[in-house]
Write a structure and sequence with these properties.
CATH class of the largest domain: Mainly Beta
Strand content: 15-25%
Helix content: 10-25%
Strand order of the largest sheet: 1-6-12-9-10
Number of domains: 2
Oligomer: single chain
Order of helices and strands: EEEEHEEEEEEEEEEHHEHEHE
Shape: rod-shaped
Structural class: alpha+beta
Number of helices: 5
Radius of gyration: 45 Å
Largest sheet: 5 strands, antiparallel
Length: about 450
C-alpha cells in the first residue's frame, strides 16, 4: 500500500548474525523476493514477486533497485534512506498497523469530545506464499525471517509473526487476521537501524501448506509511538530472508547422530557405530569393547592376542608368551622343570637358623640355573618357608632372607635379576603338621614357581 509521510529519517543497515537453526532445503522458494515476474515500479506490486500474494485486501509491496527513490527504490525510497536488502537485491514491505479514524460529528457539534475516535477496525497487510511441500506431522520446523522498521514509521508493534496455514487465505477485508501464529515476537520491533530476526520452532500437525507473515492480534500485539508529538498511527516494516526448514534433531554430543538413534547420546561417536565412540579404532564401539584402548578383532571382543596363541590378552595370564588354553594362556612348564622344583622343596638346605646355603644344595641350584637358561621366557618366583619353632617375626625374617639368598645365588650364575622375585612367608603356610619332626622338616622349604610377567 502506498503511504505518504511528511517527515522521513535516514537509516543505516547493519545485518545481524544469521539464525543458526534449521537444516536442509528451505521450504520457501522465493524467501528473498529475488525472483520477479516483471520489474517492480511502484507500490502494491507484491504479486510480481513469484509465488507471493496478499491473503486479505491489504496491498503489500516489493522494493527494487530499479524503482524510483520516491516510491519503492533501494536503498532510498519514500519511507526512508539507506536501507539495503538483508540478502540479495530485493525485499518486501507491509503495513503492520494503521489506526483508522472516523468522524463523530454528533460529539463534535455538542463539544463534548474530539470529532475523531478509533474506527471499528484497524488496517493490516500480510504476505503469503505456498510451501514447497506439506509439513510432516510431529516433526519440528524452524521459521525465520528479518524485519526492519521503516524510518518513516511513527509506530512500532509487537506480534509480528508467521502463521502456517492448511489453506490459502483470501479474506475480503483488510482487517487483522484472527489466526494464531505459530511463531511471533512478544517484544515490539522498534529498530530502524538494523534488521531484526524473528525466529522460532514449532511442531507441525501435517496440514500446513502456506506461510503468512505480518502482525497478528492473536500474537501478543501491542503498538507504541516511536516519535515525539503527533504521529501518523502507522507502522511499516521491510521484510526479507524468509525460511522454513526442518529443525535439527536433538544431538547432545554433537556427533551428527540424533539422540533418538544414538546408542551413546552423551559421548561423541561414529555414525557407523550408532553414535558410540571407538577410541582404539578397531571398529568395535567402546561400550562393547573388552579392550577399548587397544585395537583387537571382533572375535576377541576387541582385544588383541599379542602372543598369537588364540587367547585374547584380557583373558591371557601370559599375554606376551604363547601358551595353551589349559594353562590360561601360559606355556606348559616342562616336565624337567617340574621334577626339579619338586626335588628342590627338600633338596635346598641352609645352616640352622641362618640364611647361608649349604654347599650340598649347589647341585640342585645349578640345575635350576640350567632350566632358566634353557627357557628364556620363564620368570621365577622364589618362596621361602620355615617351621613353627621359635619367634614368629624371626621366622618371617629368616624365610625372606633364605629366599633372597637363593635369588642371589642364581643371579651370580648368570640369571638376570629381572627374571626373579623372592618372598618370605615364615611359618604361615605349612604343608605338614609342625608337631612332628618329619612335618617340620617338610615345612622348612624353598618353592620355585614359574611365571611369565615380562
Amino acid at each position: 500500500m502506498q503511504l505518504k509521510y511528511t517527515s522521513l529519517m535516514a537509516g543505516v543497515l547493519v545485518s545481524i548474525s544469521a539464525f543458526a537453526q534449521g537444516t536442509g532445503e528451505n521450504l520457501i522458494k522465493n524467501g528473498g523476493f529475488e525472483e520477479l515476474s516483471r520489474p517492480v515500479t511502484t507500490w502494491k506490486q507484491l504479486d510480481r514477486a513469484t509465488g507471493w500474494s496478499n491473503p486479505n485486501t491489504g496491498s503489500a509491496d516489493v522494493f527494487d533497485k530499479g524503482a524510483r527513490h520516491n516510491t519503492v527504490g533501494i536503498p532510498d525510497n519514500e519511507l526512508g534512506t539507506g536501507t539495503a536488502a538483508f540478502e540479495g537485491e530485493h525485499y518486501a514491505g507491509f503495513v503492520a498497523f494503521k489506526e483508522a479514524e472516523r468522524k463523530n460529528w454528533k460529539r463534535f457539534l455538542d463539544g463534548r469530545e474530539s470529532p475523531f475516535e478509533p474506527a471499528y477496525q484497524g488496517y493490516s497487510e500480510y504476505v503469503q506464499t505456498a510451501l514447497a511441500s506439506p509439513l510432516t506431522a510431529g516433526q519440528k520446523y524452524d521459521v525465520s525471517f528479518r524485519v526492519k522498521l521503516a524510518n518513516g514509521s511513527d509506530r512500532a508493534v509487537s506480534g509480528i509473526g508467521a502463521y502456517l496455514s492448511p489453506v490459502q487465505l483470501a479474506y475480503r477485508n483488510n482487517q487483522f487476521l484472527q489466526e494464531k501464529p505459530q511463531v511471533s515476537t512478544a517484544k515490539k520491533v522498534n529498530n530502524k537501524q538494523d534488521w531484526t530476526e524473528v525466529a522460532g520452532t514449532f511442531t507441525a500437525d501435517g496440514t500446513e501448506k502456506f506461510l503468512i507473515i505480518g502482525a497478528f492480534s492473536n500474537g501478543g500485539f501491542e503498538s507504541e509511538k516511536v516519535i515525539e508529538g503527533p504521529d501518523s498511527k502507522r507502522a511499516y516494516y521491510y521484510l526479507d530472508g524468509i525460511s522454513v526448514k526442518l529443525h535439527p534433531e536433538e544431538d547432545r554430543d554433537k556427533d551428527g547422530v540424533p539422540d533418538k538413534i544414538d546408542r551413546c547420546p552423551d559421548l561423541a561417536g561414529l555414525a557407523s557405530l550408532e553414535g558410540c565412540p571407538d577410541r582404539d579404532g578397531d571398529g568395535i564401539a567402546d561400550n562393547m569393547d573388552a579392550c577399548p584402548d587397544v585395537a583387537g578383532p571382533a572375535n576377541f571382543n576387541g582385544c588383541p592376542d599379542s602372543d598369537g596363541d588364540g587367547i585374547p590378552d584380557n583373558l591371557d595370564r601370559c599375554p606376551k608368551v604363547k601358551g595353551s588354553s589349559a594353562n590360561n594362556g601360559c606355556p606348559e612348564v616342562s616336565e624337567k622343570a617340574r621334577k626339579l622344583f619338586e626335588k628342590a622343596l627338600t633338596g635346598i638346605q641352609f645352616e640352622s637358623g641362618k640364611s647361608i646355603i649349604k654347599t650340598s644344595s649347589y647341585g640342585i641350584l645349578n640345575q635350576v640355573v640350567d632350566v632358566m637358561k634353557e627357557n628364556p621366557t620363564y620368570d621365577l618366583e622364589i618362596h621361602g618357608h620355615t617351621d613353627s619353632q621359635g619367634d614368629d617375626a624371626k621366622n618371617m625374617k629368616l624365610s625372606e632372607d633364605r629366599a633372597a639368598a637363593v635369588r642371589t645365588y642364581l643371579e651370580g650364575k648368570g640369571i638376570s635379576g629381572d627374571r626373579m622375585k623372592s618372598f618370605g612367608h615364615g611359618e604361615t603356610m605349612p604343608v605338614e603338621d609342625n608337631a612332628t619332626a618329619a612335618g617340620r622338616a617338610k615345612n622348612r622349604r624353598v618353592e620355585f614357581k614359574v611365571t611369565f610377567w615380562r
